[in-house]
Structures are given as C-alpha cells and as structure tokens.
Amino acid sequence: MLAAHFPALQVVLPLLMAPVCVLLRGARLAWLAALAVSWVAFAIAGLLLAEVLIGGPLSYAVGGWAPPWGIEIRLDAVNAFVALIVAAIGAIVMLYAPKSVEREIGNDRAYLFYTAYLLCLAGLLGVTITGDAFNLFVFLEISSLSSYILISLGRDRRALYAAYQYLILGTIGATLYLIGVGLLYQATGTLNLADLAQRLPALEDVRGVRVAFAFLTVGLSLKLALFPLHLWLPNAYTYAPSVVTAFLAATATKVAVYALLRFLFTVFGAEFSFTVLPMGPPLAVLAVLAMFTASIVAIFQENVKRMLAYSSIAQIGYMVLGISLVTVEGLTASILHVFNHALMKGALFLAMGCVFYRISSVHIDDFAGLAKRMPWTAAAFVGGGLSLIGVPLTAGFISKWYLVLAALERNMWPVAALIVISSLLAVIYVWRVVEQAYFRPPPADRDVREEAPLSLLIPTWILVAANVYFGVDAGLTTSAAGQAAQTLLGSAP
Amino acid sequence: MTHHLVLRVIAKLLIPFIMLFGLYVQFHGDYGPGGGFQAGVIFASAFILYALVFGVDVARRVAPDWAVRTGIALGGLIFGGTGLVAILKGGNYLDYSALSGDPVAGQHLGILVIELGVGITVASVMMAIFFGFAGRGR
Q: Is residue A47 part of a domain?
C-alpha cells in the first residue's frame, strides 16, 4: 500500500524532516534524522527507477486531483535516473557530514545546516520528479533559497558575498523561467508538462510560445551555469563549506540540466527546439566555448576548490554539447555525463573537504607534500582526477567515449577533436595538484602523517570506488541512460 | 517609554482586538476572503505593536526565541502532516477527501488544518524577521 505513495514520499519525507531538525536542535540528533531520511530517499529512488525501467512511466495525482488539472508527479526513465543520482549523492554526503560540519560550520549552527540541506534535497528531488511546470518553479525556488543559505554558512566572510551573488543571478534565472511558464500558460491554458507537450505542436507559430521558449532556455541556462551565464558558480563553490560544495556541485546543476532536457525535448519537442528554431548550433558553440575557456581559466587558479569549480563549468559544456547533437547517442552521452560527473566531482570535493579538515586551506601551495601527510586523501584526489580527465577504466572515460562517438556519428570530426583536446587541458590542471602533492616536500614543521578521520575518508572512497566501478562495468548506467535518451526523443514507449 | 501614556493605553486596548481579528481572518478563510497568510501577518502585527510600544526586550519575554522557532517548524509540520494523515487514511498525499467519511467534510477539515499550519508559520516568521532586525546592533 505504501509503495503506491513512493513518488510523493520521495519529496515529502525530506521536506517534513527539515522542520523536525529545527525542533531537535542538537547537532547529533539533527544529523541522525537527516542521515536516515537521505538513505530512505535513496532507497525509494532506487525502487522507483527499477519500477520505471521495467513497467514504464508512473503517474501520481497529488491531493487526488486528476492531471492535467491537479499537480501530477510523473516519473519516466529520464527523471527517475536523475532522482537516483541526487538521492545517492545526498546519502553519501550525509555519511561524510558530521565531522566536516563540526569543523567548518560549528555544532551550534549545525541543525540549521541539516535543515537547509534537507530542504535543498527535497527541492532538487521535487524539480526532478514533478510533472507540472509551475510546481517545478516552486521546487526550484525551494532548492535555490536553501542553497543560498547553505553557501552563506561558509567560514570565510566572502561566502556571504558569494551567496548574495548567487541569490541575485539565481533569482533572475528563476524569474525568466516563471515568465516563460506564464507565457506558455497564456497560450495553452495548461501547466501540466505532458499536456503542454500535446498542445504546443499546434501553436508552433504563435509568437508568445517562441518568446516563452527563449525565456525558459535562458532562465534554465542560468541555473545550470552554461557559459557565459556561469558567473555565480566559481565563488559559490569556492567559499561554501566543503560538504555543501560537494553536494551542490554533484546535484544542483545536474537537476537544471534535466529541466532543460525536459523542456527542449518533452515539452517543446526536438522538432520545434532544433528544426523550427535551430537551437543546436548556438548550444554547441556555447558548449565548446565553455569547455575551453573554463578549462583554461581553471589552469591558472591558485585555490584548488575554485579550480574544480571552473572545471565544473567545462564539464557542463560536455553535457550541453551532447544535447546539441539531438541524437539518441548524444543524449545518452549527456545523461551518462550527468551521472558520471556527479560521481567525480562528488569525490573530488569530498577529498577537498578532507584536506581542509586537516590543513584549513585549499590553496595549491599548501598541498606541498600532501601525499606524505595524507596519503589516502591524495590518492582519492588522483582517482577523482583521472576520472575527470577521462582515463580508461574510470567513469569519466565512458561518458567522453560516448560523446566522441556521438559526434563522429554526425560526421562532426572537428567537434570530436575538440572534446579530446579539452580533455588534455584537464590533464594540466589535475597535474598541477598532483605535482604539488607528490613531488614537493612537505613544509619542515608539518612533515608528519595526519590523515583525515575515517568518517571522512570512507564516503570519499565510496565515490572514488564508484568512479572505477562504473568505468569498468558501465552496463547498468549506459542502459539506463540509453533508455532515458530514447524516452526523450520519443522512440520508446 | 514610561511617558507615552496615551500610546500605551491605546496599544493595550487594541492588541486583543488585533489578535481576535487575526483569528477571525484565519478561521473565516474557507468562507470568505482571508486565510493563513493574512491571518498570520495580522496576528504577528499585534506582537510587533507591543514590541514597538513597550520595547523589544519585554516583547521577547512574551514571545521568546524558542517559541518563535518552534512555531516556524510546527506550522510546516501541521501542513505536511495533514498530507501524511491523508495517505494513512487511504487517499493520495494531501487528498483531504480521505480525512473524513464524507468527502466534502474532509475537504473542509483539510483546508482548515493546513491554513492553521500556514497561519502559525507566517506569524512566527514575521516575528522572527522583526526581532531579527530589531535586535541588530546590540
């Protein structure tokens, strides 16, 4: 009986546990509550994905009001997969949280962190599984507002400025999205995504629909930090607490990528988005620019967290490049990269948290001799870094391989070459850190072994191991991503 | 503050009526204009008036920090909990019809309870914002 309500409980449990955390107050109790709910949400997401892959899309009418009038929760191969990514990262980050939060946020404010984290998790899961355009906006705001709080919890005072910057740009993005939804509502009289998809083909030439398309695309691009709308991202990732950076980097932009996919392919349809309005070339150009400019900027960063933040912007370029190819292969590569990038950036930022826990700095000069002082942490960074570059036998290789194949299939040789060249740029920035960590002697006064505690190392290494596992045995992820891509292009039931 | 006699007497006279009006807007919300959002603001304005006239410290003794924080969390829990009760009674999430044997009575009850949750949270948040700003710089 309860299984029928899983689509609702997926969002409701984290959402309701947030106020409970406020009432609990104690750092430890709040953590236990957040941990339990994160793992329950992870289990529910796994069960739902299995159900969707076998039995086809699921629909849930919130409040008993039948769609398209009421709010519908609709799960298909695409969003069930994204929800699983979000819930999985949340579950692992919560294992990691208590020590790192104690050090970087302080136990007196820890319950506020867990509350904001649970709201953010609920918002991200909500954006992913809802089937209603306005409801998507509401959840987008829940996740955004809570992530501004999470970022501002950073110890550095610049975290406040970073959160404020993100608040302004994020609000602009959400406003543009809302204007787009309003225009669509005006043209069609419906907010249900599936219903919109049915009505829009007849309204292709209506100016309001085209304007709505522009607003939605730009608004969501701001949220997913597509070059050149990425300005909020580097500061936010750099100054947020380590746990927050790992969680947001692995989930927030991914969910926005999903929302863009949903609107481009399901709501407007590939025909409208890429033939009537040729969105392919501009997206491809921006994606390639993101891959190169962000990677080159990353090479010159002194703060390693900031370097990884710029690398995230480059990686978002790969995802958008896959979208712009408009083939099943390209979309498969995109969705795979959403998953794999969550794993690699999660692992790398968690490793940064381990470094910060011991050294209280993520400046590249302070990484000297890290391999001697924190061998496991340094090795985890290398593992994540290899995956980021796309070395064979890591998850990063699988998605880049699919992306190159997809480009070749469209006879876009130069694009395939650009993908490989930009991966070489990743070698440079990862190497800078590895060189410091492995080939520089530690400072004389800190030449001792001071590994991070196990409660930080184990979650980090779970993600590193996942990078290797999904690089060796990619059957599970590629089939799920492939089915998602076919669903988006309408070639599957 | 001791010499504003007229102000203090009038404020004391008005505060019960403001609160009563807040409750009226709250519980009349399903028949006429009103509901939790408006009622919460009106209710909180009674506390804010008290703080303006008698001082923030006195007002914080009436509405201490923990009470305001509990109110914020409690309202959300009442709203969301109503949805969970609907699931336990065999309906979908937030399906008020399942709350009672008679669907119309169920919808009635549901909207009343969730609006109460909204009212509590809005009133507490308004107070928290006011105390947050009023408490700055000391």
A: no
Q: State pTM to two decimals.
A: 0.93
Do the chains contact at B95 and A63, CB–CB below 8 Å? yes
For residue B1, the model assigns a pLDDT of 52
The pLDDT tens digits of the residues spanning A466-479 come to 999 998 888 888 88
**Percent of chain A residues topping a pLDDT of 70:** 99
Contacts of B10 (CB under 8 A, 6+ apart): none
Degrees, nearest 5: CA angle A431-A432-A433: 90
- Residue A223 within a domain: no
Chain A residues inside the 8 Å CB shell of B76: 16, 18-19
Binding-face residues of A in 21-80 toward B, CB within 8 A = 22-23, 60-64
| Facing residue for B92 by CB, picked from A18, A20, A62 | A62
**B 24-83 → A contacts, CB under 8 A:** 69-70, 72-74, 76-77, 80-81, 83
pLDDT in tens, A205-246: 888 899 999 999 999 999 999 988 989 999 999 999 999 999
Across the range A127-139, mean pLDDT stands at: 93
- CB–CB contact B84 A16 (8 Å): yes
pLDDT score for A448: 77
Residue A433 lies in a domain: yes
Q: What's the CA gap between A426 and A385, in Å, rounded?
A: 8
User: Looking at the domain assignment, is residue A162 inside a domain?
Assistant: no
What percent of chain A stands above pLDDT 90? 60
SS3 content of chain A, % helix, strand, coil (to 5): 80, 5, 15
What the block records as the tokens of A367 is 């990484």
* pLDDT for residue A278: 87
- As for how many domains chain B has, the answer is 1
Q: Give B-chain residues touching A138 at CB under 8 angstroms.
A: none
Domain span at residue A391 reads: 284-493
Which residues on B lie below 8 Å from A64 (Cβ)? 91-92, 94-95, 97-98
Which among B80, B92, B95 is the nearest to A16, CB-wise?
B80
Report residue A102 as tokens.
């104690």
Across the interface, of A16, A60, A63, the residue whose CB is closest to B77 is A16
Mean pLDDT value across chain A: 90
State whether ipTM is beyond 0.95: no
State the alpha helices, DSSP H only, in chain B: 5-27, 36-54, 56-62, 65-88, 103-134
The residue among A155, A268, A275, A284 whose CA lies nearest residue A210 is A268
